[in-house]
Design brief:
three-stranded antiparallel beta sheet, 8 strands, mainly beta
């Protein structure tokens, strides 16, 4: 069970570093490295996060900063957190109607529907979580549940 979400007037404990694009980097993408963190809970439009890693730290390209990111546990609005679909070997790459492998899928129609959802770059919004499931919206506007997200910016966590 998660602690109650903070009120809008709660004290700000710290901040997370903005994206960082090292000059001459051959592995950071065009928008740079983003901070990586663990989502450990969800309540009413807020994610409870922990284990914040500086942008680029896991890839040997972290910036030298005067004030590091807040590394403790805290709440952030869902609009402030992003992830990618993890490669979790789901039977079909479709978003599901509930956080359960046996739930009905939102089966896409049109060209490429048989292939299902691409897990590469198609997660638009992370909306909520339940255990290891994430309620997401894909770039085509479909909302549904996916088993596993990935914060690693160099792989799809397969």
């Amino acid at each position: 069970m998660c602690a109650p979400r903070p009120p809008e007037t709660a004290e700000i404990l710290g901040t997370v570093a903005p994206p960082y694009l090292p000059a001459g980097s051959e592995i950071a993408y065009g928008s740079g490295w983003r901070a990586e963190l663990s989502v450990v809970g969800y309540k009413d439009g807020w994610f409870l996060i922990d284990d914040v890693q500086e942008p680029g730290a896991r890839y040997g390209e972290a910036a030298e900063r005067d004030k590091p990111s807040y590394a403790g546990r805290g709440w952030v609005k869902t609009s402030e957190v992003m992830a990618a679909y993890a490669n979790t070997q789901m039977p079909k790459n479709w978003l599901l109607q509930a956080p359960n492998i046996d739930a009905k899928a939102f089966v896409p129609t049109g060209a490429g529907a048989d292939e299902g959802l691409s897990i590469d770059g198609t997660l638009k919004h992370l909306l909520a979580c339940s255990a290891n499931w994430a309620l997401t919206e894909s770039t085509d506007g479909t909302r549904g549940w996916w088993r596993g997200t990935c914060s690693n910016q160099a792989t799809n966590c397969s």
